Amino acid sequence: PLTPACVRIKSSALTSSFDVAVIGGGIVGLASARELILRHPNLTFTLLEKEKELSLHQTGHNSGVIHSGIYYTPGSLKAQLCVRGAMLTYQYCQKKGVPYKKCGKLIVAVEREEIPRLKALYQRGQVNNVQDLRLIDAKAIREKEPYCRGIMALDSPNTGIVDWQLVALTYGKDFQEAGGTVITDFEASDIKVAAESAAGSAEGLKYPIIIKSSQGKEVRCRFVLTCGGLYSDRLSEISGCSSEPRIVPFRGDYLVLKPEKNYLIRGNIYPVPNPRFPFLGFHFTPRMDGSVWLGPNAVLAFKREGYKLFDFDTQDFINAVSYRGLQKLVMKNIVYGMGEIYRGVFTSAQVKNLQKFIPELSPSDVLRGPSGVRAQALDAEGNLVDDFVFDGGKGELGSRILHVRNAPSPAASSSLAIAEMIADELEKRFQL
């Protein structure tokens, strides 16, 4: 079977001038680079990634769900891109031999007062054109998930699971096979317009943008697309564009079912979401490797790539806590936030939440699992930015850059649809 280890991406940099440079080797950057080169095979493209390998951060640390597009506000980019993206993902995986499972998902109401919200979700899914959704009763829940207890559920058979890192690396392979250049170990630390020099004037005119790495390497290009995930605000700032929305990192810790208890779960089981928090709450997620993840919680991370409890970065920490938007968010949600921290520390408190759905689950059935860090965009008023945000800037530099400022979940599920939209946008802005 295809695994991330099978998909080899070699870093190469024989030339250092390109028509378009894509910064960020996560799933959105790779999907976009792939789409662009397939549309414009006559142009030269490079993808720059700061790590030694691709897709190590949000893409390599998520729950692996192919979302169907139920939750998102009708008409929003999330709703449009997720429904189309999920369909494109299934087609792509089928064509490329990337393993996936359409194991379905139940969004389960365990209290009477959740039923109106569940019915509203069903309506929303219908408006968003999610296929084959249905509301089912307690008996039908047990037929699908014998150990799950609930009074009503929304059944989404088109939700699936996949290894998103493998999908992203396969995009990268397509990009390279189409003639794209991948350069790893290249952390973009400065983006500026070339100063004209008599000797290099032709080069300067043709490739006016210089991207400098923290080790002093340089790449020149005509246009830049940044897909920086956890660093999207910083990439915008170093190119002289807006610092808003700011990225605040939230860590999510998962629990893992002990293998002998995997029989308890067949497909994805989710709670009815709390309308005040876009984090979708604790859920049960089967994985492609046969394991089952439970969680995650959501707590402030003190480092942008801080996957461990005590990971700390002074700049990231000061950046986050001095930001007025975060201070306002904390004040509005202090009780909820303390609860998340408590559940993160005490496994039994997390399990108590999960027992509402699977009463047979006990604290001794779970182990601490992996963690992920999500790039949560926040505005100055303390509002979580919920939709995709794309922007550029002004002047010679700003007019040659498109920043993907916020690509929240379901960005992986939507990646091929996001790539189409980004390619359309670049064609329009830069007359490619």
From TrEMBL:
Keyword Oxidoreductase listed: yes
Cofactor(s) required, per the database record: FAD
Limits of the FAD dependent oxidoreductase domain: 19-424
GO molecular function, a single term: (S)-2-hydroxyglutarate dehydrogenase activity
EC number from the UniProt entry: 1.1.99.2
Protein biosynthesis found in the keyword field: no
Family label: Belongs to the L2HGDH family.
NCBIfam families attached to this UniProt entry: PRK11728.1
Protein's name in the database: L-2-hydroxyglutarate dehydrogenase, mitochondrial
Organism: Sinocyclocheilus anshuiensis
